[in-house]
Design a protein that fits this description.
heterotrimer; A mainly alpha (432); B alpha/beta (254); C mainly alpha (229); A: 432 residues; MetI-like fold; 2 domains; three-stranded antiparallel beta sheet; 65% helix; B: 254 residues; alpha/beta; six-stranded mixed beta sheet; 26% strand
């Protein structure tokens, strides 16, 4: 080939640009690299340490609550022989069935009989050994088996609070002495305190129960959820999907963001003024508590909902509009289902916060001493965190373990709620 | 030009707020033809495409003036129902955007909301027909209940085309349908466009000039919101009349 | 005309044009040298022309390779595409022109030198005309000049007229000098070759016109040519 005639073809037009290669091996470069790796390690260590710290705090909380609270579920009992046949209670067996039984037995002087039996068995101050609720145990036994009235029987009744404290730890000198005496006689026993899970508040630490507060919380949360969730989600949808972007919607957005940051006690004052003052709703009722907490939870749900809706890719909206879906169809067929996991997460956070809230409920009177579980939304009630607050304020030492036990119940409630929400969220996420 | 007109646009201008995005564009779309819109980014070709089925309505600040007619009926007149319009003028988007639902549900969604199928059997038939037309049936017939998002990019885009076909539109608008796809998937979409020609009038926005040359019969070149040149694709790509078109097509733009 | 955004594309096109004009230069040179050899009865020069034709073939192959590469890698459009296609075709035509020059050179030894045949003196003028057409048309290609291409097509008519007159002259000469028939017949072929070179230059002009304007050269130009033919 005649090479002079045909110029050689350039491979890609211009000459590649020459460069001065960077020297990666210099001392400065090496030490810089070492420093970078070192800072990387430091940062990782700091992060790991933070995780361990928080885990340690959590573990400390759980361990101390469990160790203190576990005994709250246990009661100390003493064997009490009662000769009911000898007491000759003026009561006919026919009255022992149905609703009048409690009243009949109380009216017949059962309590006095039980206290007398205690004096007989354990000396003149024997009555002080027993819990205020001891006679109720006897009463319930008689209701279950009326034939007990005709004979002498031994009942396992709860001891009074000071002795219970002595049995579980260190009580007063006096109580410790009695405890030692009773232990020597071998009449003490222990059992699961079912009353704690089934009854309401009481003045006697051995008789208190969490059920009243638990039910109050349940009712309050139900009201909160039923109000806050639909209203919050619909507001979020409207603001994201329909509302024009103008000064008014900006104002609403700012207000909602501010509302979420308002201290909860302000909501309590609002509830007090509006629901109790203006509308004259009953004090201490779950409906008012629910309304107040709904006010507080709604902004959280709106904000979480808006973020979740915003996170739905616009291409999905385009796709639905493109096949001729109307805006409502776009929202309910596509946007909402896709945003729901996010909305649910926000709702869980809001509800969990509401469940643990005390301050606003104090303002609307849910701190009252309520000895019976609420049977409806308008009944006086208290809630778990308020109950814990009230018990922690008690002087009697028997309440210490009950407070911890109540905290355990509250934590279990929270865990259960979160568990359900996470389950729901996963279900929605994996539906496709 | 006037043999079988499907859509006509006359003196259409689109403004976003005070910014004019489309300036006085007039175009005819023939029933049997594929029209390609080409032009540099931001030249307004996608904006114009979206005015053809009023997808710009979702942008609050967009104002459309001029006249766009579908079969002689003004689509911006008050008695044109926008939901029906979008069923008649379907759209396929740049990024494949199947619903995060099953393949079947993706295709069945349109007919369902428009009540095009009475019984389940009807719906099944529409789904199969649409998937067949989109050339996807053989690949997915055994896994119709799988998620549409589990398909490959090209398959997803064909699923989106099937979804658009399912409501039996008259016009299909495609906004850079292949920009996210590999060359083989692109070729399949292009082949599909060939097969669908005649059944639907089609308008395709593309950045790929070779693609415009391959799939279309007419090409419109947009530049800075104006329609610079509109004519037969073979003329535009071999012998454009306008200097700007020539510079853009030969890679001398800018 | 603006430059391409991809600079290498401009380089490729420039190189393609360079090869074409190089080829054209060689073909022009071949015609001139062949005519000179014929005039001077210079066998060595004629041999040189025949050797130079190989170089034209090499460049033609190179043009083909480059054009195919540009089409494959650059996907040329509109004016670029027309230019590359035109270059491809022009290379083939110029190669043919080179072949005609070689053919003329091949006939040099066959025309006896002792007694000069008189008509040989008018052939160089025709050769100059043909080589000028080749020169002009390749200039037109380099400049994308459609007007120049039209002028080349028009000048082909003059060449055809020249050929007609030479044809008559040579036929008359043969009738008058039957002894020289075999030599003059060769001259007839030389004249024919020059006329074909002109036709090929016209073809190139048409390609240049299409490359530059995107339309076929209108029949008006052809009409003039056919009328005069």
């Amino acid at each position: 080939m005649t090479d002079t005639l045909v110029p050689s073809l350039p491979t890609s037009g211009a000459e590649p640009v020459r460069r001065v290669p960077t020297d990666w091996t210099t001392q400065a470069m090496q030490s810089r690299i070492r420093r970078r790796y070192a800072s990387e390690r430091r940062f990782r260590f700091a992060g790991l340490a933070a995780v361990w710290m928080s885990a340690a705090f959590l573990a400390f909380l759980l361990v101390s609550m469990l160790s203190q609270g576990a005994s709250g579920f246990v009661e100390t009992r003493v064997a009490l022989p009662v000769d009911l046949a000898a007491a000759k209670l003026p009561i006919s067996p026919s009255r022992l069935v149905g609703r009048g039984a409690d009243l009949a037995l109380a009216g017949a002087g059962l309590e006095g009989t039980v206290l007398a039996a205690a004096s007989t068995a354990y000396g003149k101050d024997g009555a002080n050994l027993l819990s205020d609720g001891a006679w109720a145990v006897v009463r319930d036994a008689i209701k279950a088996d009326p034939s007990l009235l005709q004979r002498r029987a031994v009942f396992e009744v709860p001891v009074s609070s000071p002795i219970d404290v002595a049995a579980k730890g260190v009580g007063t000198n006096e109580a410790e002495a009695i405890y030692a005496r009773l232990t020597a006689r071998g009449v003490l026993s222990r059992g699961f305190n079912t009353g704690f899970l089934t009854s309401a508040d009481s003045t006697d630490a051995t008789r208190v129960g969490i059920w009243g507060a638990f039910k109050g919380s349940l009712l309050t949360m139900a009201v909160t959820l039923l109000l806050a969730f639909p209203i919050g989600v619909l507001s979020a949808l409207y603001l994201e999907e329909y509302a024009p972007k103008n000064r008014w919607t900006d104002l609403i957005e700012v207000s909602i963001n501010n509302l979420a940051a308002v201290p909860s006690i302000i909501f309590g004052l609002l509830g007090l003024a509006v629901f109790l003052g203006t509308f004259g709703m009953p004090r201490s009722a779950p409906i008012v508590g629910g309304l107040t907490l709904a006010l507080m939870t709604m902004p959280v749900i709106v904000i979480a909902g808006r973020n979740a809706i915003k996170a739905v890719p616009p291409s999905i909206r385009d796709a639905a509009l493109g096949v001729g879906a109307s805006p409502v169809q776009v929202v309910f067929h596509h946007v909402l289902p896709l945003a729901l996991p996010g909305i649910l997460t926000g709702t869980i956070i809001g509800m969990a916060r509401a469940l643990g809230e005390t301050a606003p409920l104090l303002m609307i009177g849910m701190r009252a001493f309520i000895a019976a579980p609420p049977s409806g939304l308008n009944d006086p009630a208290t809630v778990l965190p308020v109950q814990i607050f009230l018990w922690s304020d008690q002087v009697s030492r028997g309440f210490v373990e009950k407070t911890s036990a109540a905290i355990i119940v509250l934590l279990v409630f929270l865990l259960a709620m979160n568990g359900v929400a996470i389950y729901l969220r996963n279900r929605f996420e994996t539906r496709w | 030009m006037t043999k079988n007109l499907k859509m006509t646009a006359r003196n259409v201008s689109v403004a976003y707020g005070s910014k004019l995005a489309i300036d006085n564009v007039s175009i005819d779309v023939d029933q049997d033809e594929v029209v390609a819109f080409i032009g540099p980014s931001g030249c307004g070709k996608s904006t114009f495409l979206r005015t053809l089925n009023r997808m710009n309505d979702t942008v609050a600040s967009a104002r459309v003036t001029g006249e766009i007619k579908l079969d002689g009926q003004d689509i911006y007149s008050p008695d044109m129902d926008v939901v029906q319009l979008r069923a008649r003028v379907g759209m396929v988007f740049q990024k494949p955007n199947p619903f995060p639902k099953s393949i079947y549900e993706n295709v069945a969604y349109g007919p369902r909301i428009h009540g095009l199928a009475g019984a389940k059997a009807d719906l099944d038939r529409i789904v199969e027909k649409s998937l067949r037309r989109a050339g996807l049936w053989d690949e997915v017939k055994d896994r119709l209940s799988d998620s549409g998002t589990a398909l490959s990019g090209g398959q997803q885009q064909r699923l989106c085309i099937a979804r658009a076909i399912a409501v039996d539109p008259e016009v299909i608008l495609m906004d850079e349908p292949c920009s996210a796809l590999d060359p083989i998937a692109t070729a399949k979409i292009e082949e599909l466009i060939h097969e669908l020609r005649g059944r639907y009038a089609m308008v395709i926005v593309t950045h790929n000039m070779q693609q415009a040359a391959r799939v279309s019969q007419k090409t419109a070149f947009f530049h800075l919101g104006t329609l610079v040149e509109y004519g037969n694709t073979s003329d535009i790509f071999t012998n454009p009349r306008e200097e700007r078109t020539k510079d853009y097509i030969t890679g001398r733009y800018g | 005309m603006n430059t391409h955004t991809v600079k290498a594309f401009d380089n490729d096109i420039g190189e393609l044009r360079g090869l074409i004009s190089q080829m054209g230069g060689l073909a022009e040179d071949a015609i001139d040298k062949a005519m000179l050899a014929l005039q001077r009865n210079d066998i060595a020069l004629a041999e040189q022309v025949r050797a130079a034709d190989k170089q034209i073939d090499v460049i033609e192959a190179e043009v083909e390779r480059l054009a195919v590469r540009i089409i494959a890698l650059r996907a040329p459009m509109a004016v670029d595409l027309r230019e590359v296609v035109a270059a491809l075709k022009i290379a083939g035509v110029v190669e043919r022109i080179g072949d005609y020059a070689k053919n003329i050179a091949k006939r040099v030894p066959m025309i006896e030198s002792e007694h000069r045949i008189e008509p040989i003196s008018i052939l160089p003028a025709m050769g100059r005309m043909a080589s000028e057409m080749v020169h002009d048309v390749l200039d037109a290609f380099a400049a994308r000049d459609a007007e120049e291409a039209v002028r080349v097509v028009e000048s082909d008519a003059a060449l055809d007229d020249f050929y007609d007159s030479i044809f008559r002259t040579l036929v008359t000469y043969m009738v008058e000098n039957p002894k020289t028939i075999s030599q003059v017949a060769h001259l007839l072929f030389v004249a024919k070759n020059l006329e074909r070179i002109g036709d090929h230059a016209t073809n190139v002009a048409e390609m240049v016109y299409f490359a530059a304007t995107g339309t076929q050269m209108v029949d008006r130009e052809r009409g003039i040519k056919q009328e005069q033919a």
